[in-house]
Design a protein that fits this description.
single chain; alpha/beta; five-stranded parallel sheet; 8 helices; 28% helix
Length: 326
């Protein structure tokens, strides 16, 4: 008697937490599917409940949740979603975090501090995640925190294309907000036809988060439109001080390009008042109506995320999306 022989059909299913459903819907639409109907609510004491409204057995699950404010609720909801999928017999669970929470806590600056970025990876592994997809991690070594495959996507091609199309006819320079991100600035320079590089030399008070003490521009920016690049804008103190320092050095103008618009108060006020001509971000995080202002451009990251999901689902190459550099 022969045993049962069946070739399993691959079944892609996309799930979304509640912090940024607009992005998840855009990703799902790009993949030609719908988000799986999900019930999610809080009990009276704030505990989160999640249940999927259809069977997920044997599926290739992609759970999208951007870690937006309130960040701890967003993370906990995604962990619970992963646990529910594991217990409902999903075949493979890929956690999609357009913005990886706690990514700035990736090393110890002083004694008796946590490395919360590593703790995050451990939590998702324990919950049942097999794979992680994220966009522009704060530092590359976070990829090594997760015990499994990590697809580290880069928003730079999307941002650089916008800069090239809008400002390509002007003399450009690429400016890194600190010496540590000069490698990223070098990639930007290649994208912008070999534009010269500069960086901001700054001193940071490690006892006061989000604050820098001094800015000095190292490099030739005079007479050029400077593209100031960073991975995130939180309170916007660092980036707006840098923009003003660049203008003080005789630059023709400043354009700020960053992936993650955290925009914690008083970011909007600072950016509205600063000397930048345009501030370009992606929609890895949701923005409230009051966080939009004149001069802000938001580009969609959905095509990049959906392309990565498709490559993972079809056992293709995510690296091929970035000319072999991812």
């Amino acid at each position: 008697m022969t045993g049962i022989q069946k070739t399993p059909e691959k079944n892609l299913m996309v799930f979304s937490g509640r912090t940024h459903t607009a992005l998840a819907e855009e990703v799902a639409a790009s993949l030609g599917t719908d988000l799986v109907p999900t019930s999610a609510y809080e009990f009276a004491n704030g505990e989160i409940y999640v249940r999927y409204e259809e069977s997920v057995r044997g599926c290739d699950a992609f759970v999208i949740q951007s870690h937006a404010t309130p960040i701890n609720e967003a993370i906990m909801e995604q962990l619970i979603m992963v646990d529910a999928l594991k217990r409902a017999s999903a075949k493979r669970i890929t956690v999609v975090q357009p913005f990886y929470g706690y990514g700035r806590q990736d090393k110890k600056h002083k004694g008796r501090e946590p490395i919360s970025g590593r703790l995050m990876a451990d939590l998702f592994k324990t919950a049942g995640a097999d794979r992680l997809i994220s966009v522009d991690l704060h530092t590359d070594q976070i990829q090594g925190f997760f015990d499994g495959p990590v697809d580290h996507l880069m928003a730079m091609p999307i941002l650089a294309r916008h800069v090239r199309e809008k400002y390509g006819d002007r003399q450009l320079a690429v400016v890194s907000p600190d010496a540590g991100r000069i490698k990223v600035a070098e990639q930007w320079s290649r994208q912008l036809g070999g534009a010269p590089l500069a960086f901001i030399h700054k001193t940071r008070d490690i006892s006061r988060p989000n604050e820098t003490v001094a800015n000095r521009v190292v490099g030739e920016v005079e007479g050029r439109l400077c593209v100031l690049v960073d991975d995130m804008i939180d309170t916007a103190g660092t980036i707006t001080k840098a923009a003003d320092a660049i203008m003080a050095e005789g630059a023709a103008g400043v354009v700020i390009a960053a992936t993650h618009p955290i925009f914690s108060p008083p970011a909007v006020e600072r950016m509205t008042a600063c000397s930048a001509e345009e501030i370009i971000v992606t929609n890895t995080l949701p923005l409230a109506p009051e966080q939009h202002f004149e001069g802000l451009t938001v580009l969609s990251i959905a095509p990049l995320i959906s392309a990565a999901i498709r490559e993972v689902f079809e056992d293709g190459s995510v690296t091929s999306l970035f000319e072999g550099r991812a």
